[in-house]
Specification:
The chain is of the alpha/beta class. The chain has 2 domains: 4-41 and 283-384, Aspartate Aminotransferase, domain 1, CATH 3.90.1150.10; 50-281, Type I PLP-dependent aspartate aminotransferase-like (Major domain) (Aspartate Aminotransferase, domain 2). It has helices spanning 10-14, 20-23, 43-54, 67-79, 94-105, 121-128, 149-155, 178-190, 249-255, 260-263, 268-279, 281-306, 335-343, 369-384; strands spanning 30-31, 88-91, 111-114, 132-135, 139-140, 145-146, 160-166, 194-198, 224-228, 242-246, 312-313, 321-325, 345-346, 348-349, 360-364. β5 and β6 (145-146) form a beta hairpin. The model has no long low-confidence stretch (mean pLDDT 97). Bound molecules: pyridoxal-5'-phosphate. Pyridoxal-5'-phosphate binds at residues 35, 93-95, 119, 166, 170, 198, 200, 229, 231, 237, 242. Pyridoxal-5'-phosphate (PLP) binds at residues 35, 93-95, 119, 166, 170, 198, 200, 229, 231, 237, 242.
Length: 387
C-alpha cells in the first residue's frame, strides 16, 4: 500500500507553478533533474509557516539562535555528533557556506580536493574563487563506488588546502563507510587539510548503510566545517536557510572575518521551517515515511535499469539521486539532450559533474510512484528506439 502522503500524481506537480523543476520543461516534459522532491511537505512544517503569516509574525527573527541547540540535540541523537551550539552559524544556503569557507580558509591558487563526478556547483566553487581543482575520481566497483585513497595521496600537493567532501555523495548516492572515512581522515591529518563536509543528504540514508558525520572521526572536529540544512530531506529548497557548523572557535573566527552584512541575515520563515523540521516529532515521522517510499522507488528504478540493455546503474545507498551510465548506448553527444529531445525526459546532464561525468545522466527518483512509472516507460521506449 502506498502511503498517500507520497502518492503524488502528475496533475498535482503540474499545478504548482513556482518551481524550476517542473517549470522549465513545459507541459510535455517529465522532470527528474534538480534535487527537489515532488511530495507535499510535512504537516508540522506547513503549520509552522502558515501560523506565522496568519498572525503577521514575520519581523526580524528572534529565533535564529535556536538553530544551534536544535541541531545539537538532533545530531547527537541521530549520529552521535556532539557539536557546540555556539559554533553554529546560519547561512543563506549550503553553497554560501561552501563558497565563503573556501574564501576564508584558503588563498588564490590553492588546491581544493574532491571526489568526482561531483555535484557540479563544487566545481564552480573552485573556478569562481580562483582556486585549483585537485581531482580525486571515485573508483567503480562491481556494485558501487569507492574512495581512491592512494589516488588522493598522489594528487595532493603543498598547495592543497581543503578537502571539499560530499558526505553522502551526490551524484553517486554513496554513504561512505566509517572505514573509508577513517582512511580519508588519515590523509587529511597527514596533509594538514581543512575539511568542508557537505552533509545536506545525511537524513536520506537507506537501511543497510549509515551516515557518519566527518567531524565525529578522531582528530577531525578541529579541522572540519560541516555545512548542512533541512532543505533536501524535508523538501524545502526555496526557504534559503542553512547552517555552517565549526569544529572549533578558531575555525569560526576565521569565518567571522567576513561581515554578516555581506552574507545577509536569516529568513524568518526559513528559520521556523527548519526548527519544525529538525525538532518536531511529526516531521521525523514524515521523514521515516518518506524513506520507505524512496527505498521502494529506488528498488523499482534499479530493477528496471538492470533489465535495460546498454544502461547501467549502481544502487544508491543514500539520497534520491541516481547516477546512470549510458555510455554503451549508440547516442552521439549528450544522453541528457537525447532523452530530453526524444522522450521529453529532463535529467541532469552528467557532463557538468566533472571527471567520468560525460555519458551519464542523473535521475531524481523523489516522486510519486505513478510519475516514476511514466518516466521509466518513456526511458525504456527511448532506449529501445536506439535499436
Ligand atoms: C550536495 C549538495 N549540496 C548543496 C546543495 C544545495 O544546497 P543549497 O540550496 O542550500 O545551497 C545540494 C542541492 O541539491 C546538494 O545536493
Amino acid at each position: 500500500m502506498i502511503d498517500p502522503r507520497f502518492d503524488t500524481h502528475l496533475d498535482e506537480v503540474r499545478s504548482r507553478p513556482r518551481g524550476i523543476k517542473w517549470g522549465r520543461g513545459g507541459p510535455d516534459v517529465l522532470a527528474a533533474w534538480v534535487a527537489d522532491m515532488d511530495f507535499a511537505i510535512a504537516e508540522p512544517i506547513r503549520q509552522a509557516v502558515i501560523g506565522m503569516w496568519e498572525i503577521s509574525d514575520i519581523g526580524y527573527s528572534l529565533r535564529a539562535n535556536r538553530l544551534g541547540p536544535v541541531l545539537a540535540e538532533r545530531g547527537s541523537k541521530l549520529w552521535g555528533w556532539d557539536l557546540d551550539p555556539e559554533l553554529v552559524v546560519p547561512t543563506a544556503d549550503v553553497l554560501q557556506g561552501v563558497w565563503n569557507n573556501i574564501y576564508v580558509h584558503s588563498d588564490l591558487g590553492d588546491g581544493i580536493a574532491m571526489q568526482t563526478p561531483i555535484y557540479y556547483p563544487f566545481l564552480k566553487a573552485v573556478t569562481d574563487t580562483k582556486r585549483s581543482l585537485v581531482d580525486n575520481p571515485l573508483l567503480t566497483t562491481d556494485e558501487s563506488w569507492a574512495l581512491d585513497i592512494d589516488g588522493l595521496r598522489a594528487v595532493i600537493d603543498d598547495r592543497t588546502k581543503i578537502l571539499l567532501l560530499c558526505n553522502p555523495h551526490n551524484p553517486s548516492g554513496r554513504a561512505f563507510t566509517i572505514a573509508e572515512l577513517e582512511a580519508l581522515a588519515e590523509v587529511v591529518a597527514e596533509r594538514d587539510l581543512i575539511v568542508i563536509s557537505d552533509e545536506i543528504h545525511a537524513d536520506l540514508v537507506f537501511p543497510g548503510a549509515t551516515h557518519t558525520c566527518f567531524a565525529t572521526l578522531p582528530g577531525m572536529n578541529e579541522r572540519t566545517v560541516t555545512v548542512t540544512s533541512a532543505t533536501k530531506a524535508f523538501n524545502l529548497a526555496g526557504i534559503r536557510t542553512a547552517v555552517a557548523v565549526f569544529g572549533t572557535p578558531a575555525l569560526k573566527e576565521t569565518w567571522d572575518k567576513t561581515s554578516s552584512f555581506l552574507l545577509g541575515h536569516v529568513n524568518t520563515p526559513g528559520v521556523e521551517a527548519t526548527i519544525a523540521a529538525w525538532e518536531d516529532p511529526g516531521a521525523q515521522e514524515w521523514l521515516e515515511g518518506l524513506m520507505v517510499q524512496l527505498e521502494a522507488n529506488r528498488d523499482r528504478l534499479v530493477r528496471f535499469i538492470d533489465d535495460l540493455p546498454g544502461v547501467e546503474i549502481r544502487s544508491p545507498d543514500a539520497t534520491y539521486l541516481s547516477w546512470i551510465d549510458c555510455r554503451a548506448l549508440p547516442i552521439q553527444g549528450s544522453p541528457a539532450e537525447y532523452f530530453l529531445e526524444h522522450a521529453g525526459l529532463d535529467f541532469s546532464d552528467g557532463q557538468a559533474f566533472g571527471t567520468n561525468g560525460p555519458g551519464h545522466v542523473r535521475l531524481n527518483f523523489a516522486t510519486g510512484p505513478s510519475i516514476l512509472e511514466l518516466i521509466l516507460e518513456r526511458f525504456g521506449n527511448a532506449v529501445a528506439a536506439l535499436g
